[in-house]
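Team,

Forwarding the record for the chain on the shared tracking sheet. I've put the sequence and predicted structure together so nobody has to dig through attachments.
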Amino acid sequence: MVSTHAVGLSEMFRLAMAKMPLGAYRAEMTAPEESTAGGARALQHIRLVPRADGSGHVLVVGNANVSTATAELKTLEVVEDMCLERFKEPSGIDPTLYAAFLDEAQAVLQNFSLSVHRVGRASRPSEPSPSLPASRRGGGVAVGFLRGAIVATAAVAWFFLSRR
């Protein structure tokens, strides 16, 4: 069940981020393994991946864990520090685009009832981000409908697979 919910989250994240402008990057969430061992392997990474030509670095900018109902998103300062330390160069991410990405990613994660923490410098989570207004929660009715469809599809698949 944890695996099914996690797949729904990664698919929802993919759909929500498909048109999100991030310059040379696109946002994605890793899918969980087929079995999460009851949630023990449920951590999914949120990454920025280079667009078209594939040149550039993959940046891990957060994670989500449906088993613990928690998620973390790194602030741009943390991402910049990571790039300078690992790659000896800045990320090149536009601060305004990244701020919009964080807000949208938070909305999607909160739509899946995850508690979202933004991780700032000093390597510790900041206070939980306040809930976003309903108008910013991942598209409102459309996202709610899509989430319901994914959960219903997963339930039907589980029903038929468990009858074998």
